[in-house]
Amino acid sequence: MRKKILIINTGGTLSAVMKESGLIPGLSIYDMQKELRMVSGDVDIEIEDFCSLDSANIFPEDWSALAARIGESRNSYDGIVVIHGTDTLAYTSSMLSFMLRNIGIPVVITGSQLSITNPVADAMENCRCAIHMAASQIPGVFVAFNRKVMLGCRASKVRSLSFDAFESINYPNIATISSLGMKIDTAAVPERTGIFKLSNAYSDKVCMIKMFPGIHRSLLESLADQGYKGLYIEAYGIGGMPFLKHDFISTLDELIKGGMTVVVGTQCRYEGSKMDVYETGKRTLEIGALEAHDMTGEAALTKLMWILGMTQDLHEIRDYYSINMAGEMTVRK
Ligand code: ASP
Questions:
Q1: Distance 15 CA to ligand 1 centre (A)
Q2: Which letter does DSSP use for residue 192 in this model?
Q3: Of 264, 275, 194, 269, whose CA–CA distance to 238 is shortest?
Q4: Where in the chain is the domain with CATH 3.40.50.40?
Q5: Into which CATH architecture does domain 206-322 fall?
Q6: What pLDDT was estimated at residue 333?
C-alpha cells in the first residue's frame, strides 16, 4: 500500500527568498510542492503551512503548538515531515522527542543550508531523506540531514555553513543513505515504552549558562530573584565547578535549597559528564545537582523545561530527569 505522509512547513532557509532586509523564509509549502513531489517517489504527500519563520524566531510556545498539531494528525498519516530552520532545529527536535514520547509513527524534521529554489542546494536531498524515513514505519522523532537520519534528541548543529551541518552526538546514526540505499540501524532505535500521550506543557522559567573563568556568582543568585525554577549549567570537562576563590558550589547549594532544579553537564561536545571523579564534580552532586551525562545541551535544556512543565514536585522532577526518556541519555553504571 502507498504510504501517506504529511509535510508541515515552519520556514527556515529551505523556504528562503532574498529580500532587501536579507534572506527570509518567504516560500509557502504550496510554492515548494513541485520540488517536494519530485523527491517523494511512490509516497503520497499532503502539505500544510504551520508558520514561516527563521528558526531564531521559534519559541517554546511554537514547540507546544507544533506538538499538538502532530499529535492530532498522527492517526491520519503513516509519517510526518517537518521543514524547519537549521539554527534551532535541534532544540525543536529534542523537545518534540519529549512532548511526543512514544508516538507510533515516524516524525522527521529537516531543513537545509540553501533554499530549495537554488539549483545546487541540499534542500531536495534532505527532503528526499526525510520523506523516505517518514515512510519507514519506524516510530520516533528523527532529524534527516545530509543523507543521515539521527535521533531527534541526539542531533546537534555542529557546522554553520557546510551541508554536513548536523551530527548525532554520543549515539549512532539511525539511518544512512548510500549506494546501498537507505540502511536503517534498527538496533539503535529506542523501544517504545508505553502508549502515546501528548504531553506539550513546558516551563519557560529555565535558564542555561555556560561556565567560564571569571563568571560572577551574582548571575546565578539573580536567577532565583527572577523566579527561575530550573538551571542547566554547561560546566568544565566531565562536570567540574569552581569552589575556592569563587564558591559557585555554595551558591548552587542555596539555589537548590530554595527549590531550584540544577542540572550540570559538560561544555565538551562528545562523551558527556562524569561527575563522580573530581572533587569539583563530586561536591556538586553532594548538594543535590542532577547530572546531564551524555545528553546534548539541546536535550538537557528542553528535558528540564518539559519536566518542569509537568510537575513542581522536587522528587518527581529528580526521578523523571534521571530516567532515559526518549534515547537522549546513557546513564553510566
Ligand atoms: N537562519 C536559518 C534558520 O534557522 C538558517 C537555516 O535554516 O539554515 O531559520
A1: 9
A2: P
A3: 275
A4: 206-322
A5: 3-Layer(aba) Sandwich (3.40)
A6: 61
